[in-house]
């Protein structure tokens, strides 16, 4: 079985469902009292810290169900069993997540992972060196989804204002601090595989100031950290570009009125399976002990001989479904 997940976690009821099949020869049956299935969710990392191999692990989810009980009070000889398990998922569970870094820490790539563990309570056999429990397990991929931004967010007042960051590079005696800027996002929710338009307004203190280029970047930031004795220790801190868009000054369509410029930035947001198959939607998940993911959109406006102006806003990238799938999902009860 390639996937155990049924439904769209994050926007509708979702569950993990599958089967466990057991086969033993008739001449050598296994003696069982019961069998349990457990779905376990962990955030974990393995890394080098001060020349030592370190591990951090936290089980944030565990659900167990009994899928077989012996009909007698003793162990029952079994040669063939076909069993089913079914776990309802909490709406705020995070998705499975693997680091995109290959040649850097962490040493283990699966930072958030789920597994299905089957525990067989069997008769102990010291001659065969068999303990009383036999455990088998498999990794279980869990994906998370979002509703399209047009459904989730209706922004009043024309958009969300981006703000200037501390990363603005200003040369001595630069006029950059006198530049008045305004960039409006249509929503804090941005759908993968969509097109968004960001109106950018610039009031320049000098008509001779010239835009060299404008860069727009959407990044995903990943951190794995803990607080020990009021001190924050960061074990993993990386970022990945989702979108990198550059517009040269000569190619910018500008509507000019006196020293005011109006520029429309049209961004083609890639589909999640075109960027990195590790991409997941994290909006609405429970707070984790160690791991955190956030997304940010930055606009870098670079002026000739004056430095650069940087605007930023935290956003939620959406792994959303098409309207057709949403309508069909709601008809079938898969989406709230």
UniProtKB/TrEMBL annotation:
InterPro entries in the record, alphabetically?
A: Arrestin-like_C
- What is the name of this protein? Arrestin-like N-terminal domain-containing protein
Species of origin = Rhizophagus clarus
Q: Lineage in the entry?
A: Eukaryota, Fungi, Fungi incertae sedis, Mucoromycota, Glomeromycotina
């Amino acid at each position: 079985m390639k996937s155990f997940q049924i439904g769209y976690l994050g926007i509708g009821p979702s569950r993990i469902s599958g089967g466990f099949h057991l086969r033993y020869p008739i001449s050598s049956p296994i003696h069982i009292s019961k069998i349990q299935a457990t779905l376990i969710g962990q955030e974990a990392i393995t890394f080098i810290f001060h020349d030592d191999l370190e591990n951090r692990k936290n089980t944030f989810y565990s659900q167990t169900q009994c899928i077989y009980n012996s009909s007698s009070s003793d162990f029952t000889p079994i040669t063939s069993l076909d069993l089913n398990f079914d776990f309802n998922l909490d709406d705020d569970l995070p998705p499975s997540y693997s680091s995109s870094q290959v040649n850097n820490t962490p040493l283990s790539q699966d930072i958030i992972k789920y597994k299905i563990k089957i525990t067989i309570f069997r008769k102990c056999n010291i001659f065969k060196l068999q303990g009383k429990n036999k455990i088998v397990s498999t990794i279980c991929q869990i994906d998370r989804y979002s509703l399209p931004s047009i459904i989730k967010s209706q922004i009043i007042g024309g958009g969300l204002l981006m703000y200037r960051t501390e990363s603005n590079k200003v040369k001595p005696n630069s006029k950059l601090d006198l530049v008045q800027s305004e960039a409006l996002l249509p929503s804090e929710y941005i759908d993968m595989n969509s097109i968004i338009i960001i109106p950018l307004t610039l009031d320049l203190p000098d008509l001779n100031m010239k835009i060299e280029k404008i860069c727009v970047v959407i990044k995903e930031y990943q951190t794995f950290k803990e607080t020990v004795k009021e001190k924050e220790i960061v074990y993993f801190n990386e970022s990945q570009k989702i979108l990198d868009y550059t517009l040269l000054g000569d190619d910018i369509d500008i509507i000019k009125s006196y020293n005011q410029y109006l520029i429309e930035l049209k961004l083609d947001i890639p589909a999640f399976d075109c960027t990195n198959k590790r991409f997941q939607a994290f909006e609405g998940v429970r707070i984790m002990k160690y791991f955190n993911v956030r997304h940010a959109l930055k606009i870098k406006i670079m002026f000739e001989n004056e430095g650069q102006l940087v605007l930023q806003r935290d956003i939620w990238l959406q792994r959303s479904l098409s309207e057709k799938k949403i309508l069909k999902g709601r008809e079938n009860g898969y989406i709230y």
